[in-house]
Design a protein that fits this description.
SIR2/SIRT2 'Small Domain', six-stranded parallel β-sheet, two-stranded antiparallel sheet, about 15% strand, elongated, binds ligand BV8
């Protein structure tokens, strides 16, 4: 389907998605790096611009990589965090946050670590892959440190204020389990939501990528927003082709119209 704004098929798909959302009591919004692309944060897998296109994830986003070369991995994350810290939520984040005020229950399940959903006003956010805003010492004995807790240290990586080991970001690296509570909450929500709205994910990283499949198998209406078809598009009821920052405000306006809000 074309993403031309005047394409009648596109409007029909948008209205179908808006009707499903307007009627639902419980919505899960599943997001990936594409949801933050218009905030200036690079995605992972898009050719050329994707982070992994220029760096080998297995060299950067694994506990082994960090133990092999802590300063190298830390510097890569410090760069990424700098980009994300300077980023602002985009219209797509704000549209998702507005949905909370239109519908009885909206929960965001995100693979992103940038915190932009929360900054846009979403109050129920499950972070499947952790966050860039919290750090722990490398063996996990001391957790929950913020940037301010090591701002006075010059050494990179900084040291745990409690035990002196290297600190690491509280993100989920390849080969690491997802936070059990977050994964359990996301799976339970996916099995009980009436609509799952997917925004900006290639759907290739597991177990996160199985979340929309749980929703589908439970009978939810699944909507996919992406400029390209992705690995999850095939299991969706509605595919809204386009950038999240453009499609989502339109979609939420259509939901508002259906609700007479
Ligand atoms: C696990 C860290 C077991 C934080 C990430 C070999 C060894 C070990 C494991 C594996 C292995 N082979 C396979 C695995 C499993 C592995 C996996 O799935 N690998 C994939 C690559 C095949 N999974 C794991 O390792 C997981 N753990 O299995 O552990 C275990 C279990 C119990 C106990 C112990 C161990 C852990 C996975 C998490 C890895 N961490 N990130 C960080 O640095 O950010 S993954 C990384 O990928 C990010 O979290 C990212 O969010 C996630 C998913 O990517 P996307 O968000 O989808 O981003 P992508 O670039 O791919 O796509 C962007 C999309 O947006 C595109 O479709 C694009 O078209 C679209 N887009 C572009 N512009 C826009 C847009 N959409 C909307 N609007 C726009 N404007």
């Amino acid at each position: 389907m074309s993403d031309r704004l005047d394409d009648p098929r596109r409007d029909e798909a948008l209205q179908t998605a808006a009707r499903a959302l307007a009627r639902s009591a419980r919505v899960a919004v599943f997001t990936g790096a594409g949801a933050s692309k218009e905030s200036g944060i690079p995605t992972f897998r898009e050719p050329e611009t994707g982070l992994w296109a220029r760096y080998d994830p297995m060299r950067l986003a694994t506990p082994e990589a960090y133990r092999d070369d802590p300063p190298f991995v830390w510097s890569w994350y410090e760069h990424r965090f700098g980009v994300a810290a300077a980023a602002q939520p985009n219209p797509g984040h704000y549209a998702i946050a507005e949905l909370e005020h239109l519908l009885p229950q909206v929960v965001v399940i995100t693979q992103n670590i940038d915190g932009l959903h929360q900054r846009a006003g979403s109050s129920h956010v499950i972070e499947l892959h952790g966050t860039m805003h919290s750090f722990r010492c490398i063996d996990g004995r001391h957790r929950g440190f913020g940037w301010d807790d090591f701002a006075d240290q010059d050494e990179k990586p900084p040291r745990c204020p409690a035990c002196g080991d290297y600190l690491r970001p509280e993100v989920v690296w390849f080969g690491e389990g997802l936070p059990p509570d977050a994964l359990d909450a996301a799976q339970r929500l996916s099995a009980s939501c009436e609509v799952m709205l997917i925004v900006g994910t290639s759907g290739v990283v597991y177990p996160a990528a199985a979340i929309p499949m749980i929703a589908r198998e439970a009978g939810a209406t699944v909507i996919d927003v992406n400029p390209e078809r992705d690995s999850l598009t095939r299991l969706c009821d509605v595919f809204l082709q386009g950038a999240g920052g453009e499609v989502l405000p339109e979609l939420i306006a259509a939901v508002r119209a259906h609700l007479g809000a």
